[in-house]
Design a protein that fits this description.
about 550 residues; six-stranded antiparallel beta sheet; 26 strands; seven-stranded mixed beta sheet
Amino acid sequence: MAFTVTKIDTTPFPGQKPGTSGLRKKVSEFSRPGYLENFIESTFQAVEELEGPLAGSTIVVGGDGRYFVTEALQTILKMAHAKKVAKVIVGQNGLFSTPAVSCIVRKYHASGAVVLTASHNPGGPHEDFGVKYNISNGGPAPESVTALIFEKTKSLTAYYKTDLPTIDLTVVKTHTFDGFVVDVIDPVADYLEMLRSIFDFPKLRALIQGGFKILIDCLDGVSGPYARRIFVEELGAAPTSVVHSTPLVDFGGSHPDPNLVYAERLVTAVRTGDFDFGAAFDGDADRNMILGRDAFFVTPSDSVAVIADHAQAAIPYFHGGLKGLSRSMPTGAALDHVAKHLGVKLFVVPTGWKFFGNLMDAGQLSVCGEESFGTGSDHIREKDGVWASLCWLSILAHTGKSVSEVLHAHWIKYGRNFFTRYDYENVESDKADAMIKYLSGFIGNAASIPVFATGHKVQTVEDFAYTDPTNGEVTAHQGLQIIFTDGSRLVYRLSGTGSSGATIRVYIDSYINDPSLYATDAQVALKPLVNIALELSQIEKFTGRTAPTVIT
C-alpha cells in the first residue's frame, strides 16, 4: 500500500527553545495546531543536517504516560514515516522510562530517540508536556544539536506527514507498512535484562526474601511497570511493597517529584510503618529519593558519594574499578572526598546530564550525580532512579547495615557535607533575572561584602563556566557560586526545567569534620548560612516571596 506525503505550510512559533531537558510547555501550548509538528520537524531537520539523513534509520519513541503522550506519539510516527525512517521502536501503550529509552537506543544501535516527558513536572490537560531528543549514545542532545533545533524553529515554513493510519500501541506487535516498521515492544524487558548484568539479583532476592522490608512509591508515573516487574516478580517483594504503580495521565493529581514535599505519602508511610527501606521515582523514572527506617533521608549529594564509595565491592558491574567520578556544580561536595580517597579524577560540570555523557563516551567517568535527585553511571547515558535504588539495596546486602548506619559510617570516614536547596517556583522571570543581575555585581568584587555576624567571610564570587575536556566546548553562565573562606558555598541558579515563569534555586553546602555534629539536622546546621543566603540575595525584596516553595 502506498502512502502520501503531505507538505503542510506553517509559520514559526516563538519560544521553542529547548532547555536542559528539551522543550517543556503547557499542554495547551503543545496542543495548538502545528505546534508539536513544528518542533518535531525542526528537530528532524537539525539531526539530518548534523548527522545525515534519517532515511533508513531506526529511532525510539516513547514517554512517561502523561496527558497528550498518546496523541503526540501518533503524530511523530506519521512524521518519521515522511522522513523515510525504516523502523520506530515504541513501548507498549507508548510507555518508556527515560532510562529504558537510553538502554534501548544503545542496545539496538538506534540513531536517536524522541522522549515525551516533562520529567518531574505535573501532568494533565492544564499542566506540562515535554519533548526532548536523545542522540545515538542514548543521552540528551548536546548544545550543538539543541541550538540548531532552536534556529530551525525560528525559520520553519513547512512540515511533512503521511496518511499512516492510527497504530494500535496497546499490544506488543510488529506493524509493517510498505517497508516502514513500527515495533511495539515490552517496555521493561530490555531494561530488566541490562539490570541483571549489573547487579547480583540472587543476593538482592535473598535480602528481600529474608525479611528486609521495602516500600517503593512510583508516584503514578512510568516507573510502575518497571518496579512491579523488578521488585515483586524478580526480587520477591510482596505486591504491596510497590504502590501508586499504575501510570496515570495526571499522576493522580500529584506532583511526580521524589522529594520530601511531593513524596510525602512515602515519607509518612516509612516513618510510621515497619519498613527498612523506601524509594520514590519521578514521572519518567530517572530521579530517585532514598529513605531508611523511620524515614531517614539520604540527600542526593550523599547518595552518589556512598554509591561511589561502595561500588567496587558491592556491585558486580564495578568490580573492575572506577574510571572517574563527577557531580554537577551545585551538588554538595561529598563526592569530592570519595574521589580523593579512591585516587580517581573528579569532574565538576554544569547541571545537565549531557555533560556526564560526554565524559562517559570518552571513557573517563563511571558514577555521577546531581543534587536534583539524579544518580547514574556509564551503563546508560541518562540518570536512572531504579538503578540507584538497586545500588542502595546492593550496598545494604553487602554491608549488613541499615541505611542510617551506612550514612553514619560514611560521615565518620569522610566528614559530612551538610546540604540543602531552597526552590522558589514560578517566579516572574523579570524578577528572577533582576535578582541574578544584582548578585552578579559581586563577581570580582567579593571584598565589598562585609564579614557576616556569624564570622563567615566571602572569598570568591564567580559565574560558573565549564570547558568540556572531551571536545573543548565552553558552557558559561551556569550559576553564581559564592565561596567562603571556610569552604562553605552558596549557589544561585535559575532552573531550565520548568514550563512557565522561572524557578530560583538556592543551594547551601557546608563541610563539617566534627563527629559530635554529624547527627545534627541539616536545616539546623545550615540555618546561619541559609540566613546569609537570603540576606545577601535580597530574595524577598526582588520576588516578594517570604518562603520557598520546596526545601530539600
